[in-house]
Give the backbone structure.
Amino acid sequence: MDKNEISNPPCAEPELVIDIRSILNKRIPRNKGRWIPSFLITAVERLIRQKELNEILKATLPSEGSEFAKRVLAHLDIKVEVKGLDKLKDGARYMFASNHPLGGLDGMALITVLGEKYGDDNIRFLVNDMLMNVTPLKGIFLPINKFGRQGREYANIINEKMESDCQIFQFPAGLCSRLQDNGEIADMEWQKSFVAKAIEYKRDVVPVYFEGQNSKKFYKIARWRKKSGIKFNLEQILLPSELCKARGSNYRIIFGSPIPWQTLAESGKTHKELASDIRMKSYALASDQ
């Protein structure tokens, strides 16, 4: 992280562990917390597989960045096949845009691949600000939905990184893939902001396809939640357990041919239309054998 980026004064980091009971005790007033039965807290701990997650942290820390991501994959015995890296030119500045099927491991795998190719100092992932709580990856993350003064500061940092030689990565859908009405598991609509930034900062766009799925349970709960009209993203609670369930899995990442920013700028299409086109190019890579 360079001198222009936000950092905290150096201090000794406490051991990083996930402790749901402690989190609830700190966040819920004492006079209300007593109404949460102990068995319910235990159920949540089991639901998110707290014990397994802490085992992963113990096995991978104090590593950071792509090394941390690489160790997570190794601990879970995850194998990743990568195709298309030869399409990327040395010295080029890219905006990588990928589908988001898993909500965790796909990010870890892509961080590993891009970190090995470019080095951690030369990659930045645009993420939901909640992910800034993933301490080992803070150095390569940039939050895109901060508010207030800190939001303005990060917006300036994002613009500086866009102007730099850093490679920028984003999951344009924001949320991970869901079961669609036609029975397919795919991303929701891709947000258009990555197209606007790519054109503004003269970055070629690289469509990426990540081949993988979460469990059927995840999609069923997401479907039920949507039909029930529940606004709270209930299925997100299952993502940590989905990561643990993936132990021993094999995935495939395919990088497509870079799309020149001039082609996008001169297309005559809106940014929304271009985002949809690039989304289709990403999924078309699935047939690349």
Remarks:
- Residues 268 and 274 are 10 Å apart (CA to CA).
